[in-house]
Specification:
The protein is of the alpha/beta class. The chain contains eight helices and seven strands; from the N terminus they run E-E-H-H-H-E-E-E-H-E-H-H-E-H-H. The radius of gyration is 15 Å and the shape is globular.
């Protein structure tokens, strides 16, 4: 296992109202240089259904989709040792500093995509941000117990923060 540095900058602008935090990019996301790049991850399908928007395909479309819908996306961890994409193997965590993103946006609510990001957010960032996060079920293919329809239902909570 080696120390891996997060290679993807956050996506946000001054009108972003919510922040969705993952834990750390998967191997596929690191290779593709964008969030939730693994074709089996349901993140983009869930957000498209929740916002009633067409599914964004390219990285540019995904960035436009997020900004149009006032959604900021980043990860809790800036660097860590990790085996492949396994959240359970994460060690030696260095957290991302969320202060710049939060001060330059209109984020009022933070959501965590899954338990690992929620656990690390609570441990490293909540004391600084003074914002409690809402834990959402992970869109990862490893969370096979959750169907796409169930994920969409749970993730629909974000809508009340976007309008």
């Amino acid at each position: 296992m080696e120390q891996v540095i997060h290679p993807i900058p956050p996506v946000y602008d001054s009108s972003s109202k919510i922040l969705i935090l993952g834990s750390f990019p998967s191997v596929k996301s690191r290779e593709g240089h964008f969030f939730y790049h693994h074709p089996q991850n349901r993140f983009w399908k869930v957000l498209a259904r929740v916002t009633k928007e067409p599914l964004p395909e390219t990285i540019e479309e995904k960035k436009r989709f997020l900004l149009k819908n006032h959604i900021a996306v980043w990860d809790v961890i800036a660097s860590c040792t990790i085996e492949g994409s396994s959240d359970s193997s994460i060690k030696n965590v260095v957290p991302n500093d969320l202060s710049k993103l939060l001060s330059e946006s209109a984020v009022t609510q933070i959501f965590c995509n899954g338990g690992t990001s929620y656990q690390y957010y609570r441990k490293y960032q909540e004391k600084t941000t003074l914002k409690s996060a809402i834990r959402l079920p992970s869109t990862s293919p490893a969370n096979a117990a959750w169907s796409l329809d169930r994920l969409v239902l749970e993730w629909s909570v974000i809508c009340s923060y976007l309008h």
